[in-house]
Amino acid sequence: MFSELKVNSNVLLSHSNYFNNYNYYQLNNFTYLERFKIFRKYGFNRELEYKEVLIDPFIEEAVNTLSLASSVYCKVLELCALEREGYFLFPIFCNYLNLKIFRILISDIPYTKFFNLLTKLESLQELDISNVNLILSPTEAPISPHYLQFPKSLTKLTYQFIKFGVTDLPEARPLEFVRNIKRGYSKQNLNLLPQHLPNLKSLEVYNDNWNDTEFEKFLNMCPALEYVYRPNSN
């Protein structure tokens, strides 16, 4: 059992079967017979092969290793520098519902799963999301709210450089999405929605082209605020 879990790219790359480990990605860890069977099944469809042979087994193993009991006892979760792999890794932690401190830094994650998790974190006190891209699929985009709803229990919020984008690239071409960082997708700022956070005492925010009126509304709905940091974006 553990109360604190930190996951970053260095930790992940230390696992020989991590799906973005170069040797594993090249199937160098597989025997000739295993590679032959993989080719017979997938042929030259490297995208489906990457998803079903490399990503899915790693996620399944991680879920089994991090047992249900771990999700119950974990109070501090930090996901750092997962970058695009974060899209596939984030669902591992969607049942960590007793968090008090949650940090996500330099990662791309699925918008809907993150939105839904936030609605369940009833004891969350500190949330730090910085340099995060939230991804919606084209089918999710028309029916998804383009804002985040934070837990009423929050006492500290750090919200910096948060964007959202609509793309099917992670699902349609997972190999290209992870390995070809030059293949981009359109993103835009996701500003704070004015909402009542009665316990919020500390707020640090930064986004380009911030809507000042909406930000003032947000401040007015947080009566317990003692500290606000917002650098000039101009």
UniProtKB/TrEMBL annotation:
SUPFAM superfamilies: RNI-like (SSF52047). It comes from Conidiobolus coronatus (strain ATCC 28846 / CBS 209.66 / NRRL 28638). This is F-box domain-containing protein. It comes from the Eukaryota. The lineage of its organism: Eukaryota, Fungi, Fungi incertae sedis, Zoopagomycota, Entomophthoromycotina.
